[in-house]
Structures are given as C-alpha cells and as structure tokens.
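Repro case for the chain-ordering regression, as requested:
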Amino acid sequence: MQEFGKLYGVGVGPGAPDLMTLRAVNVLRSVEVIAIPRSNRFTKSVAWRIAEPNVSKRDDQELLMLDFPMTKDPAITEPAWDVAFTEIGRRLESQQSVAFICEGDPLFYSTFSYLKNQAQSRWSGVEIEVVPAVSSFTAVPSVIQMTIADGQERVAVVPASYGLEELPSILELFDTVLLMKVSRVMPELVRVLDDCGLLDNSVYVSKATMEHQKVVTDLASIQNEKCDYFSMVMVKKFDRSGVLEGAVDRG
Amino acid sequence: MQEFGKLYGVGVGPGAPDLMTLRAVNVLRSVEVIAIPRSNRFTKSVAWRIAEPNVSKRDDQELLMLDFPMTKDPAITEPAWDVAFTEIGRRLESQQSVAFICEGDPLFYSTFSYLKNQAQSRWSGVEIEVVPAVSSFTAVPSVIQMTIADGQERVAVVPASYGLEELPSILELFDTVLLMKVSRVMPELVRVLDDCGLLDNSVYVSKATMEHQKVVTDLASIQNEKCDYFSMVMVKKFDRSGVLEGAVDRG
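-- result from build under test --
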C-alpha cells in the first residue's frame, strides 16, 4: 500500500485570531504544507488572515494557495477543485503532511467535507485528522450573549437560501433557530418571521468576532441591503428557557 | 451606579485541554478569580480538569469552588445555586474580575446561562463577556469524521430526555440530528431510530476528545448499558449531502 503524508482539516474559528484552539496553532506550526483556500488569486484567504498572526511560517514550510471559486456552477467549481485536490495529492504522495485550513469548523458548511470525500477515493488509506473549531454556531450567540439552549431547548440550523417554505414548521418544533446563508433571501425571511410573530425575537449578526462585526435587531431596516457572506439570523422563542428557574414545567 | 468587576463566561471546550482557545487561556491567566463549578465537594470539576494544564495559577489568584448538584429538583438546586451566585457576587462587588468556567460552550446547555440571567438582576450594570468554545456540536462530528452539514443540509440539536415523540417529524425535516442527554432513554431512542429506518445511520459517541472516548456504531448493543453523561448520538441521512459533487439537485 502506498504511504501518504497525513491530511489535516484545521478549523481556524469564526474570525478573531485568538479564538483559534491551541491544537490548531500547534498543527499549523508542525506541518510541511499549509493548504490555503481563497476565492480567487486576487483576494486574500479569509482563513489565512485569521491564522497568520498565530503561525510564524517556517522557511521549510510551504504555503499552498488554492482557488475555490464562489459559485454553485459545477462547470466552474469542478475543474477548479480538481486542480486544488491534485496539488494537495502531489504533496501527500511525497509523504508531506498537509493542513487544509477553513474558517469556522472543517465539517460545518466547509469545503473540507468535499476534500475529505475525495481523499478517501483518491489516496486510499490516507490518514485524516479533523481539528474541530469554534464555529458560528457558538460564536454568533456569544457576541449577542443569547443562550443557544438550556435544559429542554431544541436548536435548528437551517440554510435559508435553500427554501424557507418549511421554516414555519421548524419554528413550531424548535426553540432556537440559526439561519445561515441569509444574504440573498432577507426580504422573504423578514416576511416569514413577521408572519410567525417572531420578528422581534430575531437578531442579525454579520462577521461575528471579526473586525467589522455588525449586530442588527431591526431586521426590516436592512432587508434590502446587500448582506455579508458571513452573516446569520438567530431566532429565539424563549418558550422553554429557564427551566431550572421555574419559568416552565420541569419535564 | 455601583462599580463591579467584570464577569466572564469561559468555555474550555469539549474535553481535550489543547482544544481550548487562545482567548480562554488568556482570560483565565488574567482574572483575579476563577469560579469553578463541580457536582459536589467530593468530585473534581470536569471543566477545571480541562483548563488546569493550560493555566499556571498565580499566587494572587483565587480558585473559587462552587457546588452545582446534579439533579433537576429545584428544592436542591435553587439554594445551592444561590450560595454559588452569592459567592461570585461578593467578588464582583469588590471589583474583582471573575471567570466562570464551563465544559463545552458557555451558552450551549451550560450553567453559565443561569448565572448570566441572575447577573443582570443581581448586579445591575455588570459587564459580561462570553468566550465561545468548541462544543460537542463540532467535537463529536470531528472524532467520527462525519460532516455536520454541507451546502443545503439542515441540522437539529435535540435533548433526547425531554420526549422523543417529535423525533420522527424532526428526522423528516432535517439531514443531521444531534441527540443530547441520551443516557436515560437509549432503549426508546433505539426503537424510534429503528422505526424510522435510521438505526444504521446513527453513531453513539461519549467523552468526545477526552481520554476515555468511546464510539459505538451498533446502538442496539449498548442500549441497556449505563451511558456516560457526556454522550451524544449523531444521526446522518446523507439525502442532500454532496450537493456540489452532483449527488443531489443543486437547488
């Protein structure tokens, strides 16, 4: 069986460099290749902007820049991804260790999931390690200091851009709903939340923990603005929160 | 207005000490008081066992041990919590900075949520900072290397011990379901997952990233065992995963 270098998927966290884990920093300092995804050759990688302050690049370490175009068109993504995965494979085949960095967590709406699937078929037997990270799932609630869930509460994570038809049923069943990928559907989202009587229970957060972080409680006021890619809406019903404080039945 | 010390809610992550963030380490090294929750005076705090290797206690720093009994009975929890919050308040009133540590994330099924609510009424105007952490939400998937969500997928987090009646509807609407607090309902949970045809898509993980981590794919084999408090079942349908690889409609 062919020997490969080890492949790491390293989450660098939601944006603030000091929200990286000690393990992420240690792995990035130790590997031979740091694989860095960016949208195109003219933009700086968001993940590398987060990691760089914590990783003093060694002279014998390669920074491998890889282009992942921001589109859903497979005629564009598939050839670009093939180039990226081929470049990574070349290093792994030379038994170099490769750390692929991702903003947020490697398994939560991240390109690393595709790399992981490809790895298993392209480099049979390759050792993979996933370094989990602080994701927007905990980062967004932390900046607005809103409980994600206490004792009895249920949480849903829903990519808003893939249809909002089922959101009213989801809001029935869940206490906290985190809506990802809201940027292109804000007017429709505002309408659904208003119909459900939950517009006042909703908060918009973009670039959580980053430099230009933005928190908006009046969602209607920004519904026609262009929203940031790193934005989320958190909806909190509070119906079942505070169970141990006697606010609701103790179940 | 009275001046208070600053109150921090610091998540120390899922269990492995090197999964703490740089920020958590820095805050714990800088504060005057580290408030440490434990079940009772005879057990070591799980959160402190995670944090201690990264925090060299300073001579002028206080380690304040606080008992949070493991029960849902308010006749026991409420007086114990009052003692704990009163002790914390005494330090804040002396303008000492206090960091309350939590395993996982401070806002995800954590005692810190109750402290935060109490803080706002007990110490009006106190400054609070939440340091988000790697939670079981990303830690459990990382140890079994299973994608939480890609492009179109929806994720649900459900505390299993508060009723499984709605689980079939939730499994209809969601692609990934993370079941928390499974320990006392495993036989019932196994039955529901089997009825939904998803038993083979379910993985049990306890003590993720910790020393005695356990992964079980045959849930039926452990349904009558006593499960660990830090355990979770991850159910993954894969119906909508791999969107960019052409596995499903691109939406």
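Ordering looks correct now. The beta strands of chain A are 7-11, 33-38, 62-67, 98-102, 128-131, 155-159, 176-180, 202-206, 214-216, 231-236.
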